[in-house]
Specification:
Length: 140
């Protein structure tokens, strides 16, 4: 029998609080943030006032892609570009090859716990905010 750790609400709340705190430094540049578990199921979602509807979708798809393909979306996007592949090639409408999704894993064991996705700023800025959330979890 296998036993596995699962991402809990407490870790997700710490991450969301840290990301929101950072995002609120520039309220005129609103973001959306999503955390999914290792099965790509929603654990937590938040969006700042004024965030565009597509930011909600992009944040989820970044987290989904990271968890599903087991990697950070910036690296995944580069691999796909280098290989001449695009998201529609995979037949999964939730895949999005764009920086801003980070894998959540247990250090040492590399057990995947889920992923964080952020959208609303430049892709590198989205990833920077996701890194703040990951650090707040104490897992990365």
């Amino acid at each position: 029998m296998f036993q596995r750790e699962v991402l809990g609400l407490e870790e997700a709340r710490r991450a969301m609080d840290a990301m929101l705190q950072d995002g609120m430094k520039e309220p005129a540049r609103p973001i959306a943030m999503v955390i999914v578990d290792d099965h790509c199921e929603l654990v937590s979602f938040a969006r700042m006032d004024g965030a565009r509807p597509q930011n909600n979708d992009f944040a989820f798809k970044k987290a989904y892609t990271s968890a599903r393909l087991r990697g950070d979306t910036g690296a995944i996007a580069q691999r796909m570009k280098d290989g001449g592949r695009s998201a529609p090639d995979f037949g999964d409408p939730n895949l999005l090859f764009l920086q801003g999704g980070l894998l959540i894993s247990r250090p040492g064991s590399n057990q995947v716990l889920g992923a964080i996705g952020v959208s609303g700023l430049r892709a590198d800025e989205d990833e920077g905010i996701a890194k703040i959330g990951l650090a707040a979890m104490g897992l990365g």
